[in-house]
Design goal:
The complex is a heterodimer of chains A (603) and B (117).
Chain A: E1 4-12, E2 18-27, H1 29-56, H2 61-73, E3 82-89, E4 94-101, H3 106-119, H4 123-132, H5 140-146, E5 149-151, H6 157-164, E6 168-170, H7 181-187, E7 192-199, E8 202-210, H8 220-259, E9 263-268, E10 273-276, H9 278-284, H10 288-291, H11 296-301, H12 311-318, E11 322-327, E12 334-343, E13 349-358, H13 360-406, H14 409-432, E14 444-447, H15 448-465, E15 469-474, E16 479-482, H16 484-501, E17 506-515, H17 518-521, E18 529-537, H18 544-547, H19 565-575, E19 579-585, E20 589-598
Parallel strand pairs in A: 15-17
Antiparallel strand pairs in A: 1-2, 3-4, 3-8, 4-5, 6-7, 7-8, 9-10, 9-13, 11-12, 12-13, 14-16, 17-18, 18-20, 19-20
Chain B: E1 2-6, H1 10-22, E2 26-30, H2 33-43, E3 47-51, H3 59-69, E4 75-79, H4 87-90, E5 94-97, H5 103-116
Parallel strand pairs in B: 1-2, 1-3, 3-4, 4-5
Helix pairs in contact in B: 2-3
The chains are: A alpha+beta (603), B alpha/beta (117).
Chain lengths: 603, 117
């Protein structure tokens, strides 16, 4: 069969009477073919143009994928029955099913087709739906497709399409050894095509199509159209992916920005606040929308014109970053601020980014420290003055005293006056310096359990560091008259000593009450009690020749340490009229026992 | 009984020496911490009184050096200031606040030497 054009022309005689018909038949196969091709190409071009612009308008990856598959499957588009998209995951070395569309069965196929032909919806309308409507990803094809993962190494049609960057049109799926058998069985497909999606010379995925329900053969024209179309698909998908990456990065940045506890905000050249983080919103106490777009001097300083100490202004002026401390009376508090200029690509200043940290507390602390230091310096001064005055006074008074002893009568009386006056001056000096002459330390009722817990808590980090364990064995509440800080210091010294002698060992602390040591109180010991604190370790112990010296000041067997700990401890215990003793042998540990008298009326 | 007195003020050394000799002690003096360190072993005193505030080597340093070698020699710290909260003073055997009234110092010396005897 061929296309022909037939021209029938009447043949007339000289009188104008038709005497016959001439018939010219021309073979126009070629012309027709070219004409058809032109129309087809035209439609194809129109569709491609429409589809690509529709896809370019969408940046959400899932929507782009759905759009692609819709175009591939609707009758107004490419008209395939079913389609699936696989994307290359380079890191995992696999291609993964991303989305699939198409009826699950013949029945569903007929239903859809009849509905579509009834509705007469254009491709345009359908794509609009995909772009705006809700995305559902629960169809049979979708679920099937998303479960597919094929190693790129393996030799299947899909992976070859990726590796060889070429399209495959498989006419006999069941007879083709390179068709993924599981996929073929599940899909029930007879013939299909696989076309690589190539964006910037890289294969990013594969488009799979078949015509299971219509049984229409996939032609070379179809393949051509598909291939023309896949470039658009690939770049749309790539764009969407990049966009998603950018979105994700932006979201991460946004999260970081919001979670910074310092105040971070961007102010443009006109003093207008363009961006703030959550810390700013919290500090200002206004919703973000009421801050953005406002002038920074109004929001941050409550002023109608730029603040005289405005760091933004200085940064805009100098175009250089600025770091400084600012006392802000409006917000209240002291802020450590850094203000950095932001430039656009051309080098034009856009504005400044500010980071402000509330350092009010820090500043208060710092000021307190300065005042403490000042007090300490004053104390030092006073000590110096006291020393300078005290020594001459001492000489005057002392020698006057000697004279007083040796002189007689009126002269003795005069020497006495010198002595008295010097002593008066010394008393004034002591008064100024807050001296109390009594060498006794101040003692108050102390709960021994509080003190022990306090000391153990204080020691905990050091004990943990040496992987030691402290076992506390405390019986009853014991109240005694003591100087809390000094007694704690004494216990800390004993604990530190035990801790340093052990490594991964146990330290036992026992606290209990016992009848007083007879020697200390005499005969009636039955009526007196001692508080006993024992600290026992099972570490290195003390050599017999050292045991008599361990309470001597500056005696130490350790490379580090002052050698003062145990002598200070002994002195403190003695200040409390108590006793300290030790039992030890090398390698067996040391056992310190402290007795502190509980005086009558205190317990 | 021999007592070594250490003070940077010559007048005070003179006063202490006279007063303690009146009490019947043998008295040697050192005018600085360094001098005290250089003579204490040779003099071998039964007791040392140490002024805390001295230029260059202060009393605490002298205390440390002597106690390290000779923990048996009692040392009384003399202070013009309240040092009770400074634990390094605690390792001395006693401390007395400097005063023109020398009786507390004398009493402390007597108490320590009596215990030692």
């Amino acid at each position: 069969m061929i296309d022909v054009s037939i021209t029938l022309s009447p043949i007339k005689n000289s009188a104008g009477i038709i005497i016959g018909v001439s018939r010219i038949a021309r073979d126009i196969t070629e012309k027709k073919r070219v004409e058809k091709e032109l129309v087809r190409k035209n439609i194809q071009m129109q569709r491609l143009f429409f589809i690509s612009s529709a896809m370019r308008g969408t940046l959400e990856l899932d929507r782009v994928l759905r759009m692609v598959l819709t175009v591939v499957t609707v009758s107004d588009g490419l008209g395939f029955n079913r389609a699936m998209l696989f994307l290359v995951d380079e890191n995992a070395g696999v291609i993964k099913g991303a989305m699939g569309v198409g009826p699950a069965s013949h029945e569903e196929a007929w239903e859809i087709w009849s509905k579509l032909s009834h509705e007469q919806r254009s491709l345009e309308a359908i794509l609009d739906d995909v772009q705006a409507g809700p995305l559902r990803k629960d169809s049979f094809m979708d679920r099937l497709c998303c479960g597919v993962e094929i190693a790129i190494d393996s030799d299947t049609i899909l992976t070859r399409a990726v590796k060889e960057k070429r399209a495959f049109n498989v006419w006999d799926a069941r007879g083709d050894p390179q068709s993924d058998t599981v996929l073929i069985q599940q899909l029930g497909t007879m013939a299909y095509a696989a076309v690589p999606l190539i964006a910037r010379d890289k294969v990013i995925g594969v488009l799979w199509v078949d015509n299971l329900y219509s049984q229409k053969q996939i032609t070379e024209h179809d393949m051509e159209f598909l291939q023309g179309f896949t470039d658009q698909i690939a770049s749309a998908i790539e764009n969407a992916r990049l966009f998603e990456q950018v979105m994700r990065a932006e979201q991460e940045l946004e999260n970081i920005f919001e979670s910074i506890s310092d105040l971070v905000f961007f102010v443009d050249r006109d003093f207008t606040i363009r961006k703030v983080n959550k810390a700013v919103v919290d500090k200002i106490g206004l919703p973000e929308s009421s801050i953005i777009g406002q002038r920074c001097f109004w929001i941050f300083h409550g002023l109608n014109m730029p603040w005289q100490h405005c760091p933004h202004m200085k940064t805009v002026e100098t175009k250089a970053a600025l770091v400084g401390e600012i006392e802000d009376p409006h917000l209240g508090g002291t802020y450590l601020i850094s203000s950095s200029p932001i430039f656009e690509k051309a080098g034009e200043l856009l504005g400044t980014v500010h980071i402000a940290r509330d350092i009010s507390e820090l500043k208060q602390l710092r000021e307190k420290m300065v005042s403490v230091e000042r007090m300490a310096a004053l104390g030092e001064m006073a000590a110096k003055v006291a020393h300078e005055i005290r020594n001459p006074l001492l000489s005057i008074g002392g020698f006057a005293g000697r004279l007083q002893k040796r002189l007689e009568g009126g002269q003795k009386e005069q020497a006495r006056i010198i002595v008295d006056e010097v002593q008066r001056l010394e008393a004034i000096l002591n008064g100024i310096l807050g001296f109390v002459r009594t060498a006794h330390i101040e003692k108050k009722p102390v709960m021994l359990s509080d003190l022990v817990h306090d000391a153990l808590f204080f020691m905990e980090p050091q004990v943990l560091e040496r992987r030691n364990k402290i076992r506390l064995d405390m019986h009853g509440e014991i109240r005694l008259l003591a100087n809390y800080d000094r007694l704690k210091e004494a216990l800390l010294n004993l604990l530190a000593n035990a801790n340093q002698s052990s490594d991964g060992g146990e330290i036992v602390v026992r606290v209990y009450r016992t009848p007083a040591l007879a020697a200390a109180v005499g005969a009636d010991s039955a009526e007196h009690y001692d508080a006993v604190v024992e600290v026992e370790d099972f570490g290195t112990g003390i050599r017999p020749e050292d045991i008599g010296r361990i309470f001597d000041p500056f005696f130490t067997t350790r490379p580090v340490g002052t050698g003062l700990g145990l002598s200070i401890t002994k002195r403190i215990i003695e200040e409390h009229e108590g006793t300290i003793s030790v039992q030890s042998s090398p390698g067996r540990g040391a056992h310190f026992v402290v007795h502190l008298p509980i005086k009558e009326g205190e317990a | 009984m021999k007592i070594l007195i250490v003070d940077d003020e010559k007048n005070i050394l003179k006063l202490y020496k006279a007063e303690l000799e009146d009490e019947g002690y043998t008295v040697v003096t050192a005018n600085s911490g360094a001098e005290a360190i250089s003579i204490y072993e040779q003099e071998n005193p039964d007791l040392i009184t140490l002024d805390i505030m001295m230029p260059e080597m202060d009393g605490i340093q002298v205390l440390r050096q002597i106690k390290q070698k000779r923990p048996d020699i009692p040392i009384i710290m003399l202070t013009a200031y309240d040092y009770r909260d400074d634990f390094s003073v605690w390792v001395s055997d006693a401390y007395v606040v400097k005063s023109s009234d020398l009786s507390p110092l004398k009493a402390t010396i007597k108490q320590i030497l009596d215990k030692k005897a």
